């Protein structure tokens, strides 16, 4: 990835998966992305079930859900990568890609989240993520389309995802 991450198309990024392997978003080029900062011990943690439903039902149509564990909010995801992965699989059957734990705010914020926050600010233009399970919708074209609050359930945003999926993939 180039040194100026803000100019690199999102589908050109290479991320680190929860198991430490590289995940090239190029593998998901032309797909709609739903990027979520997650936590294992949060009041919103049951949203993993809804995210998994979206992944299973809309994945064949071109949706990729990406979960990014984050321990910045109430220390609600303190576990190791192995613990987080086991928790998500055992309790919610998570099969969508889970990424390595990240920070989403502050000087250590992952460059992807810096970009997402800048391109889809929150209420009143704020950039900071307020809590776990903030969601970002990225269109097939790699543009950040919308930001959703933690209380916005996966079922509540399904219509937006379906609309994004109905758009044709960008020309190669």
UniProtKB/TrEMBL annotation:
**InterPro entries the UniProt entry points to:** Glutathione_peroxidase, GPX_AS, GPX_CS, Thioredoxin-like_sf
Q: Which GO terms describe its biological process?
A: cellular response to oxidative stress
Q: Which UniProt keywords apply?
A: Oxidoreductase, Peroxidase
SUPFAM superfamilies found in the cross-reference section:
Thioredoxin-like
A single MF term (Gene Ontology):
peroxidase activity
- What is the active site of this protein? 42
Provide the family line.
Answer: Belongs to the glutathione peroxidase family.
Q: Which PANTHER family match?
A: GLUTATHIONE PEROXIDASE
Protein name according to UniProt: Glutathione peroxidase
